[in-house]
Every structure is written in structure tokens, then in C-alpha cells.
Design goal:
There is one protein chain. Helices cover 29% and strands 24% of the residues. It is an alpha/beta fold and 173 residues long. The strands form two sheets. It has a five-stranded parallel beta sheet, with helices on both faces. It is elongated, with a radius of gyration of 19 Å.
């Protein structure tokens, strides 16, 4: 998931009456209690912060991931498409590009090829909901430094960012 801890469903039910609508009921497990005066676990901040260009055509995914990465101490610029991401790269160079695979104007693979053609050493991470290992040609694979399946766990994403940008992960000061 995009969240640091998984959400656990107990049950999902649906009831429908013609002309009256549908009611969907979700039941979750009870949240564990946190003793007074303690803070819940947070994502560890990475120091120094890395500049990440996040490209995803789905606004909710883009904004949620950006918020979570920023909460973990990263500097995030967002773009809603491959062409918008390339326009940003013409102005500034991030430490890493994080892109969705399936986008309407330009696929994440095409974007990765164009990024690597202009900036061969810039790491590119491909996010995909189509399985962890989509079918890619050897040329496509050479343009992509890592493929992560959606939903991605934030701890895994932060580990990959640290690994590909040469920054050791550290906890909050």
C-alpha cells in the first residue's frame, strides 16, 4: 500500500433495493490503542533529502505519493504526464525520476528512454499496477533502474530511493 501500515478489512457487504439505491458497509479491525504520550510510528526521514520528480497521470495517486514522500523528508516535484515531466527536466535536474508505467500521452517506458537519452546517469524507477515484472525489451530495461509493483510500500520506495541515489538511510534526528 502507499501507507506505512496495512489497513485490515473485517468484512464488506452490499445491499441493494430497486429504486432505493445501494448501501455498502465496510467493517475494519479495531485500531490498536497507543499509550498516552507516545507517538505512532512514522516513516524515517532520509537525510539529505533527495529531489524526486514524480510523474503519474492519476491526481489522487500523484498527490498521495508526493505527500508521503515529503513527510519522509524528500523534495518532490510532480508532473501529470510524460511531456510535463520532460518539460520539468529541461528546467531542472532531480536526483531521481519516479514514473507510472501506464499513462495516456506517453508511457513510462517511453519517458524512461527519453530521460536516459538526455541524462544517462539519472535513475528512473517505474511504478506499475500490471505486475512487478512487465514484459519489457532489453532496450526498455536498460532505461529503467528499478520496477516496483503497485501498491508500493513506502519503506520499500524509500529504500530504493536511497539505494539509487547513493544516500544511506538514517532515522529522524
Amino acid at each position: 500500500t502507499l501507507f506505512p501500515t496495512p489497513t485490515l478489512f473485517r468484512s464488506v457487504t452490499a445491499a441493494s433495493l430497486p429504486g432505493a439505491g445501494t448501501t455498502v458497509t465496510l467493517q475494519f479491525q479495531a485500531a490498536s490503542t497507543v499509550p498516552a504520550g507516545t507517538a505512532p510510528d512514522r516513516l524515517p526521514a532520509q537525510k539529505p533529502a533527495r529531489r524526486i520528480l514524480l510523474i503519474d497521470d492519476e491526481a489522487a495517486v500523484r498527490h498521495t505519493m508526493a505527500d508521503l514522500l515529503q513527510a519522509a523528508g524528500q523534495i518532490v516535484h510532480v508532473a501529470e504526464s510524460g511531456p510535463a515531466g520532460l518539460a520539468y527536466l529541461a528546467q531542472a535536474l532531480p536526483d531521481l525520476v519516479l514514473t507510472d508505467l501506464g499513462m495516456p500521452e506517453m508511457s513510462g517506458v517511453e519517458l524512461a528512454r527519453r530521460v536516459k537519452a538526455a541524462h544517462p546517469r539519472l535513475p528512473v524507477v517505474l511504478l506499475t499496477g500490471w505486475g512487478d515484472t512487465p514484459t519489457l525489451s532489453a532496450d526498455d530495461r536498460s532505461a529503467i533502474d528499478r520496477v516496483l509493483g503497485k501498491p508500493v510500500r513506502m519503506a520499500e520506495l524509500l529504500r530504493v530511493v536511497a539505494e539509487l541515489t547513493g544516500v544511506e538511510e538514517t532515522g529522524s534526528p
